[in-house]
# Entry
Amino acid sequence: MTTHHNDKVKVAALQLEPIIGDLHANMTACENMANEAAKQGAKWIMLPEFFTSGMAFDPKIKDAIQPPGGKALDLLLDLAKRHQAHVGGSFLIRDNDNEVRNAYFLVSPEGLLGRHDKDIPTMWENCFYVGGQDDGIIETPDYKVGAAVCWEFMRSQTVRRLQGKVDLIVGGSCWWSVPSWVPKLVTGHWEDKNECTALECIRSFATYVGAPIIHAAHTGPAVCDMPGMPMQYKGHYEGGSMIVDGQGNRVAFRDHRQGEGIITGEIKIGQTKPSKVISDAYWLHNRGPIPSIAWNYQRWHGKRWYKKHVAAK
# Structure
């Protein structure tokens, strides 16, 4: 599987319409799409963040939490060996210390290469896992690979841990829309900006770090209770799966409106000179009013919900 840094490699990203908490259905869909990506010649195949479960404020998420060495990791290892490819994706795992984490695993035909634990849970994700502290750099025989998931693409600290240090970035997102609440003219405007941010934060991240990106996403409706509030969230997963070269140009893209499926494209794996300079700001992009409020109150609510409902007693 040795490749050279000047070679172009065919890569793929999956786009999943998840069934919340349904491990078997979500893994089956991912396996079928990964098989199709391999048929098209992809040698790097990335699954989304939370590919076993999706993500919403829904207790069914707990049903998909994996033990160490569980079915989800077995699937990644099996796909890598079957297709002689690198395969990656994230899922919730209860580690040996009994804490649950959102772990992104990267594997090869020879076995596990490494994992990255998402640093900070986003909004209601706080209900289901705790954050990690690793640098997200995974060594392979040929490359240094950086892992990042969802709102890690939004933060300058992610750029600092990866900038100039990796040849490729792999990751995924489970990004939900701003709900269409009254006044709809206002929330609709906020949603337009939210969708633009979901797309731009992935593309521009390559220009901050100086490496190509394989990013897998979710699609479809998202409906759940609002944490701590007597109302429902009704929205959808957005952003879209994307393959980006080291200069930030889109090589392939699947809009969330296109539904479940795969994208493939050829990229040159290797470091390039970053074209953007990061500021001292914590966020690389403006989150918008509703996500900003939800980030704070749902973090407070989620940490308590996690201790009561998910953390091992």
